[in-house]
Amino acid sequence: MKEGAHVSAVTGGEPLLALEHIRKSFPGAGKGDAAVKVLDGVTLQVGSGEFVAILGPSGSGKTTLFRLIGGLLQPDSGAIRLGGEDIAGQRGRIGYMPQQPSLLPWRNVLDNVLMAAEIAGISRKEAEPKAREWLVRAGLGGCESAYPHELSGGMQQRASFVRALLGPQQLLCLDEPFGALDAMTRLEMQLWLGSLWQESGRAVLLVTHSIDEALLLADRVYVLSAKPATVLEEVKVPWPHPRSEANMAEPQFVRLRQQLYDVLRKAKEVPQR
Ligand SMILES: Nc1ncnc2c1ncn2[C@@H]1O[C@H](COP(=O)(O)OP(=O)(O)OP(=O)(O)O)[C@@H](O)[C@H]1O
Ligand SMILES: [Mg+2]
Question: Is the pLDDT of residue 6 over 70?
């Protein structure tokens, strides 16, 4: 596959996640209002152990897509398959970090991050040492007993991130995980996520508004149009992992950034129906 070229699918074998022609509308807000068409036939794949990013204008339906993959919503039509199995409407099949951290206010940080393991039936005895280790690696050492309202937005995001990581699922869906972080912390967390993803062997599907974040981390990038969303572009990112800030200065990186920027600018120009 050529760098930056429009590519059509995961190379070889059954993808871990396959979305086929997903359509989703929501009822209009008022009585008699027309339905709002959000997703208009979205098809994408994530291979086993692959890192895939989704870029798209605000309101294009990225979170809706994640809620569909997570089984919180049902598609109007189309298929959602994980490892070849239809998982539409099934919860708990993927690790999910929602756009809003959604930590439980009555649980402290440690108990919040242990939730994913708890739901998966992993004993506290087994899960706790790992949870404590990951909290330290996420810069939250010493915050184990704090409650969510005592944390900054960025700290809540990191706790939510660790919670998603501690589940056993092979696919992690991360919805703008670093949106609330300052630029330096964000870069640190991006590089951390990159190395952790490599270590874990799991697949990641990442929603981001940052072209640089997508290029720094992902093997492939999908660009969605404005709503009703379709896939406008699929780009392969050529660099091997681990990547670093040094990659961002390469002429190839700059070219790809411009290519994605142009597609996104066009995506925003698509009139919203
Ligand atoms: N439960 C719902 N009922 C009605 N409309 C909804 C619902 N959820 C989402 N929408 C609409 O669907 C569209 C897509 O929303 P979504 O949150 O998926 O966008 P997004 O791409 O994640 O945006 P952002 O980048 O700002 O997070 C928006 O117009 C939103 O108002
Ligand atoms: Mg969103």
Answer: no
